[in-house]
């Protein structure tokens, strides 16, 4: 990673702003395009797209690069940047970083020949994002649940990245934590941490004050929801369509919150740091 | 504690509602006055004051009993109950529970002869309320701080009840916790828990992302605030007037949140449970 | 798993005894061979080998099945059972369980046709054994280290199963925990838990009171040991030949303890339970 | 605390040795008497008593100062120092530190006029010693209990200093922790930490794998021991005569270990540090 590296930051949301400021705070030159409405704290040069391209070897696109498949995501800009052959051509000789780049690649065949890095595919990125996701879930639980988490009975469905971080935090707050998993090896892990462990097919039994779902398939379907004896707050953290049958939940008068994209919402600064450090690690390799 | 006990619940806020419902769920008769606008979940008899008095031996006044020193606190009623000799006379032969009863006692000399119990003076009550207070503080921190608490540098000023519970929870979430105290014995406790310990006079040194003050005197005065090198989020949990010089903080552009009466706000159900159980323990003695 | 299952337990060490008793306590018939010197607490039929074979469908061999490749491991028996075609022939129609069965299979070609299950290869078995291993390491550290673990600086080299469980326990005791790993994703996990994370190549830097090695290759070679500035207690948990250059350590006057096969030594009852439950899970599949 | 302070260290056990070395490592002059058999690591002047007195203003006696009430405790010396008027006369103008000084004061009326400090009476000293005591208890439990502490059911009787530290460590290792106390406020603390809380009179009920007693009166008397349904390992940490009826326990075939004076035994270095730092704090006041 060269010391005189210049980074061009194009569009995005609060995470991209935080990332840009953090890179600038590390002493690198940062040129930013797509942030007319933003007042940066750090020394960042707001520039036109061409200027960014002229000065920077490394270009950082947002996460996701595009929401509609056509334009660059740029929440803080009124300009619309079309993702097409011209855009790709501009970035031809650059090192291009971005998150969820799949739809970008469909906008031009040129991308095959450009040096791109999708940081959102890196394991470390996913692990680190589990932290703001878990904290976001806890914040929602604290706001919505009328009791205290301390002493409450919490079920965490799924023991992947988010399940691991979330169950640890809930335990640290003093909740009584049950975690579900499919494999005996995971149950062994779960129990070694002091939590209760149950098989995924048992999520419908037991009494819980709160249920945090992290499993991205319909575990909490109508039959499971129907046989629940308690009246838990359900926070669904699984990406769309989520793991809870929302219609059945509504009919059964269950309180379900589908919480998506928490890192960017609850901790943009942390989320920006995570992107920055993942990019640094890629540059060092 | 007799099994056929009848409880009269008079006025108050969400905690009093939750408490009434929890007592009813335990199988006791509950008569409630001062809740015209409330739809209770449990079997609770909404009644006129006289009816409550006629049926109940134990009367539970709210916390605080009065906000203005003249009327009974009753957030869910349009009626105004004056606290005077007549009111005291009504409760003469009852067992009367309440929180922060001091100002009530000034409204009539009759109170000297009435069997009263201020549950808010009990140690167990204060300890248990530290839990919703700490969770309320964490919820605020999660909402206001743009990073994650996990990995952040948190200072908890003061190692009393709230300081103890809060530092444990922050540590459990994965924050880097420093706690201040005045006594070496407290520093020994603090360090045995894995936190860093500093003397109270050192709170102005060190770099923190968040500061939680629990000390009810002006520790964070102008001189301390001025020499701070970092730009922390400050959450003041100390009762009025708090421990932070707000004017100095404003001039120095520091972000201070004075969070008061958190249990009733963030966890009315938990706070109601705490009141109920404290009363039960008094009745059993 | 049939309710009237009969288990034959052949030879082994304290774990096998604990396992046999635990199976009997669950209500199953247990026939044991190779335990002349043992007085079982539970109802267990000590029998000759032929009797065991006659009564039992499931036969449980020890862990490891053999130490010398020729005889059945049987610490509590004076008889020597040769592992050969005759032995295999005896077990031909049985369901045979055992640990580290590789060398057994070399004693007779018959084993190809026998229904065998090596429980020591199951992930859940390995995970669960990390718990007694970590506790054994902590017991050694408490015995050998003249200070307290609380507040001490501990390095855990490697973040596999043992590293994960051990670092969590050390942290729970209040040690200052640093963990090394090779991958950024593991460092992200490590830091999310509140530990310090370092890359494996950095294990020679930093000051530690204790070092727990879990990496089964020579990480602590002469060059690493030589540049250590502190004088740590080193506990090597990696299987033979371990991860520490013992000769270099001796020349440098470093205190190294190579701790092997801890589960059977420090917690035979727990180790026996783990074997039993793994076998039960296999039977249920 | 003067920079050129000289400390005289007289007699004692391993803690006193560790303390002397730690003081010397801080750069102070240390004169030691009563350690003929000891080879100190740090620069310490082994001296005759008179020489110590001549050079040092601060004299540190051991903990306890005397075991028999007549002689100075000096485990590493063959000389017997009689505690009498002559001894007191020698120390007349010194600042004298020591632990459990009560019996020393009975050896001469001169002590009334000498500047003495019994560090063992300081709260911080007691708090810090709870740490090696708790670790010593855990080491014993790990050695004696054939299962793992992780997942085991542990009762900690009493929620004083040792109870607090011990329950936290057991919880951190992953045990299922129940703590007994007499007061509701303590039960509130206990539950806020995620442990189960019971009243002291309930210690005889419930099933435990291990019981740690910290209460210095006979809580585990014959009637409590008799009605126990489980067969726990009992570790009694209370000072003599302890909290367990040993004769009844023996008749009932219960395994009881009375563990006394753990800090000096399991962690002399830590115990020496604690003494040193308490003395430093006294000197700074």
Let me know the CATH homologous superfamily of the largest domain in chain A: NAD(P)-binding Rossmann-like Domain
For the largest interface, the chains and their residue counts are: A-B, 30 and 30 residues
Helix-strand sequence of chain A: EHEEHEHEHEHEHEHEEHEHEHH
Radius of gyration based on Cα positions of chain A: 22 Å
Oligomer: homotetramer
Extract low-pLDDT stretches of chain A: none
* Biggest sheet descriptor of chain A: 6 strands, parallel
What proportion of the residues of chain A is helical, as a percent range? 25-40%
CATH class of the largest domain in chain A: Alpha Beta
Shape label of chain A: elongated
Distance between the termini of chain A: 9 Å
Please tally the β strands of chain A and state the result. Answer: 12
CATH architecture of the largest domain in chain A: 3-Layer(aba) Sandwich
GO molecular function (chains A, B, C, D): oxidoreductase activity
Protein name (chains A, B, C, D): Dipicolinate synthase subunit A
Enzyme class (chains A, B, C, D): oxidoreductase
EC number (chains A, B, C, D): 1.3.1.-
Features:
Rossmann fold; 2 domains; alpha/beta; 6-stranded parallel sheet; 37% helix; 285 residues; homotetramer; 11 helices
Structure description:
The structure is a homotetramer of 285-residue chains. The first copy, chain A, is of the alpha/beta class and 285 residues long. Chain A folds into two domains: 6-121, 3-Layer(aba) Sandwich (Rossmann fold), CATH 3.40.50.720; 129-264, 3-Layer(aba) Sandwich (Rossmann fold). Chain A contains eleven helices and twelve strands. Chain A has helices at residues 14-25, 49-55, 85-90, 102-105, 123-144, 161-173, 184-192, 222-226, 246-251, 262-266, 268-284, and strands spanning 6-10, 29-33, 45-46, 58-60, 95-98, 115-118, 153-157, 176-181, 196-199, 210-213, 233-236, 255-258. In chain A, the strands form two sheets. Chain A has a six-stranded parallel β-sheet with strand order 3-2-1-4-5-6, with helices on both faces. Chain A has a six-stranded parallel β-sheet with strand order 9-8-7-10-11-12. In chain A, β7, α6 (161-173) and β8 form a beta-alpha-beta unit. In chain A, α1 (14-25) packs across α11 (268-284). Chain A is elongated. The relative contact order of chain A is 0.13. The mean pLDDT of chain A is 95. The interface between A and C is medium-sized, with 19 and 19 residues. Chains A, B, C, D: Keywords: Oxidoreductase. Chains A, B, C, D: It comes from Caproicibacter fermentans. Chains A, B, C, D: Residues 7-101 form the Dipicolinate synthase subunit A N-terminal domain. Chains A, B, C, D: One of its GO terms (molecular function) is oxidoreductase activity. Chains A, B, C, D: InterPro entries: DpaA_N, NAD(P)-bd_dom_sf.
